[in-house]
Every structure is written in structure tokens, then in C-alpha cells.
Amino acid sequence: MVVKKGRLYAVMLLLIMIGIVDTAYLTYSHYNGTPVACPDAGIVNCGKVLSSPYSTIFGIPLGFIGMVFFAIELFMLDRTDYENIMFFNIIGIATVVYLLYVEYVLGAICLYCTLVHILVVSLFVLSVYGYLREKKVSTKK
């Protein structure tokens, strides 16, 4: 069942677009070799995180993989398919848990990565809400 696009859709769309911009910036920075605008000393050290061996998978930067993740989410949101978005976000949540572990191992936090983590968790929560709302609407009929 397709639910009318409303506030939930708009909020999720905004979060996805922020995710695309953030991950596009990280991807651009990776391929151009330019440092990101972020502190580089202490616990907040984007450079340490983004230049670590964990920052790529098979030579593909995680920023690019994140950008693809948000693009798929955008496609799914356009169909307002909250059930599939919810299940897709479980992959995102698992990835966030792994990346938080990586930051712990490195002893550094990347602010841009943290933004992505917050976006993924928020999108998961919103998709669960959308799914439950969809299910409630379909049971009333």
C-alpha cells in the first residue's frame, strides 16, 4: 500500500539529501586527496579516520558506498515503501555499529561520519514509524 506523501516523506527526503551531500563531499575529498575541513588533533580527527585502512573496501571509499546507500534510499522513498526502507536501514544500522567500533579502535572520531551515523539511525526510526503507520492504515480497511 502506498501512503500519501506528507511530512514524514519530507523529513526523510531532507535527511537523505543531507546524507548525499555529506558523502559526496567525503568522496570528492578522497579522490582529490584534499583534507576535509575538520580538526586533526585529539579525539576528533577526521583525517586519521578517513586515511585509515578501514576507510575503503576493495579500494572503494566508504564515502562513495554511503552515497550509493543514500541514493538507493532516495529511490525507495520515492515509492514510499517504508517496509523495504526499514529492512534496508537494518543494513545501515549494522554498518554504523561496525564503523563506531572502527572509530573506537582508531581512537578518533570523524564528524562527517558521525553525521552519517545519526542520519542512518534517524532514517531507520522514521522508516519504522512509516511502516507501522502504513500497517495501521491497511488494517483499518
Task: Describe the fold and architecture.
The chain has a single domain (about 5-140), classed as de novo design (two linked rop proteins) (Up-down Bundle), CATH 1.20.1440. It has helices spanning about 5-30, 45-50, 60-80, 80-105, 110-140, and strands spanning about 55, 60. The chain is about 75% helix and about 5% strand. The protein is elongated. The protein is mostly helical and about 140 residues long. α1 (about 5-30) packs antiparallel against α3 (about 60-80), α1 (about 5-30) runs antiparallel to α5 (about 110-140) and α4 packs antiparallel against α5 (about 110-140). The chain contains 5 helices and 2 strands, in the order ααββααα. The mean pLDDT is about 90. A two-stranded antiparallel sheet has the order 1-2.
Structural class: mainly alpha
- What is the highest CATH level, the class? Mainly Alpha
Number of domains: 1
How many helices? The count is 5
- Biggest sheet record: 2 strands, antiparallel
Write out the CATH superfamily name: VKOR domain
User: pLDDT below 50 for ≥5 consecutive residues: which ranges?
Assistant: none
Question: Which key phrases capture this entry?
Answer:
single chain; 73% helix; two-stranded antiparallel sheet; de novo design (two linked rop proteins); 141 residues; mainly alpha
SSE order and pairing:
Layout: H1 7-32, H2 46-50, E1 56-57, E2 60-61, H3 62-78, H4 82-106, H5 111-140
What would a concise description of this structure say?
This protein is an all-alpha fold and 141 residues long.
